[in-house]
Design a protein that fits this description.
Layout lengths: L2 H7 L4 H37 L10 H25 L8 H29 L5 H28 L21
């Protein structure tokens, strides 16, 4: 076997492989937490849409139902992502992190609301199935990609190599 072929077959960048595995683990955890939030969102949306926010009795009922269900899902996702997905990246500034999480979540959720509004009001697809497809399939998929990127880079950014973070530091109990 030639040297060039061995070089190509060798694992060229183990650090890159490890980073990719870390990213995939983080994405899987994010999707798991999001799956729980998704179930909360869908259940509350459909319950509210069929009862107190029935579009036949409440103007804008579908949008109101989605807004309430979205806020409930954000609360569930905040707890799950902070405790599981981004537990190593979370910082000491809880208030700032919470506000950024809320902003990123609302931005991602606005994608779902926009898809619902366009489908329901602009295109006239007003059935429960159409509302669910536009908000909870297309809108959720697009919003999820946006949220993952914002959470990783803005809400829970990885600390710079060598950076000191008081929340992750331990005070030495003895001097060597």
């Amino acid at each position: 076997m030639s040297d060039a072929r061995r070089l190509v077959q060798a694992r060229p960048l183990p650090a890159l492989d490890e980073r990719m595995r870390g990213l995939l683990r983080q994405a899987a955890s994010f999707l798991g937490v999001g799956g729980i939030g998704f179930l909360v969102d869908i259940a509350i949306f459909n319950l509210l849409r069929a009862t107190v926010f029935d579009p036949q009795h409440v103007a804008g009922g579908a949008i109101l139902a989605k807004a309430v269900s979205t806020l409930a899902a954000i609360a569930v996702n905040w707890i799950g992502n902070r405790q599981v997905t981004f537990r190593r990246e979370r910082g000491a500034r809880l208030g700032r992190e919470a506000l950024r999480f809320l902003a990123a979540s609302l931005l991602g959720s606005s994608v779902s609301l926009a898809c619902l509004a366009i489908s329901h009001y602009a295109l006239g697809f007003t059935s429960p199935a159409a509302d669910n497809l536009s908000a909870n399939v297309l809108g959720l998929a697009l919003g999820t990609a946006l949220r993952f990127q914002l959470y990783r880079t803005w809400v829970f950014p990885a600390p710079a190599v060598g950076a000191w973070d008081p929340a992750r530091s331990r005070v030495p109990t003895s001097i060597p």
